[in-house]
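Readers of this paper often ask what the protein records in our data store actually look like. Such a record has a labelled line for the sequence and another for the backbone structure tokens. The tokens are whole numbers drawn from a learned vocabulary of local backbone shapes. We quote a single record here, exactly as it is kept in our systems:
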Amino acid sequence: MRLITLTFLFLSLFAQGQSLPIDFESDVTSSDFVDFDGGEGSVVENPQSDAINSSVKVGKIVRDGGAIWAGSKIPLDDNIDFSLNSTIVMKVFTTAPVGTIVKFKLEGSGQTERDAKTTVSNAWEELKWDFTGTPNNLNELVFMFDFGSTGNGAESSTFYFDDVKQEYGGAQIDLPVNFESSTVNYTMSDFGGNESELTEDPFNPGNKVIKVIKTDQAATWAGTTIGTPAGFTTNIPLSMTTSKMTVKVWSPEAGTPIRLKVEDSDDPTHTCETETNTTVSGGWETLEFDFTNQAPGTELLSIGLDMGWTYNMASIFFNFGTEGAVAGEETYYFDDVQFGDLQSNTIQIEQDRIFVYPNPSGDLWQIYSAQFLIEQLDLYDAKGQLLISQRPNARTINLNAVDFAPGIYFAKIKTTGQTQSFKLLKN
């Protein structure tokens, strides 16, 4: 009888082990929290049930004195696997001001952390933390609300959270990067006062690019890491003989210094930086970056390679060296980040893309596609009315065949490999 009782107790304890997702209804109790440095975690009744979160029970952390990183954590039975579902999502409720930092840290045989900011106060919202590329060696969820401030136990230092789970966040980014895949995580990591987002190319509808705003509060070194802090899936194969990368950029002014930096996502001291200037004002161009021509004051590529450094992450800096308060807020775009020199990458871009030229035109638009057979071409006016539909293998749009008025038109071109849209101007 004693053996049966002990066996039942062991199985009961094992069955209550923690794993994602966590909803606090029955899986986690107050005793499962491990508090530290002024934080106190517990499971309580939902203080404000609404459409976003109607759960009965939620997690609660009160910060009262202690350290600026005070919080609480929940150990899990197994390591978290981020190979497919790379984003952690959690519902948060607080009366603290909008913009309060919620740091989500993971610990185990290593550690990593991400920040999110609240966008509402006195209401539930869902926040997300992107852990793409994180290794499978972490099994503790660490919650640090209002990170950077000392709590005082008041209502604004009390935080509620619920429904901690993983979601699919897309595959880890890798070179070459063209921002066109629907299955790749194109999250950018801004710093120093930059703001970036994935958007449609304003000069070529249908093409996806990254828009970068260097705000009027930006530092001289403000920039954008291309991807998450995990970097690329594979190392950039830099050597002393293959030392170049190219990036397609749009700048409002010619002569703008653009810096490209490569580093090791696991060691930020292992870096190499190079810089070049734009030559086009208000237009796209492809810039070549040679890492054997390092930027002044930065480490030589040869020294890094001799020490066995590897590079799997890249960051781009627009108008490097000038702070936003001097330059004013400026908008830039970039696309087609590739390893290799300008000539080889230009050929590859031309093979993968469709071009319509000349644009603007008064009598004829020509379509160029080196790799794909054109299956259908549709031309619309600015109101969305279909004017012409041609197939297959259409190569021209004759503006003299129909009485086209000067103005803006849109061409939708379907090929065997893709569909692209173009904004065209008839003059």
In short: The two ends are 94 Å apart (CA to CA). Residues 341 and 380 are 38 Å apart (CA to CA). Residues 2-15 form the longest helix (14 residues). The chain is about 10% helix and 45% strand.
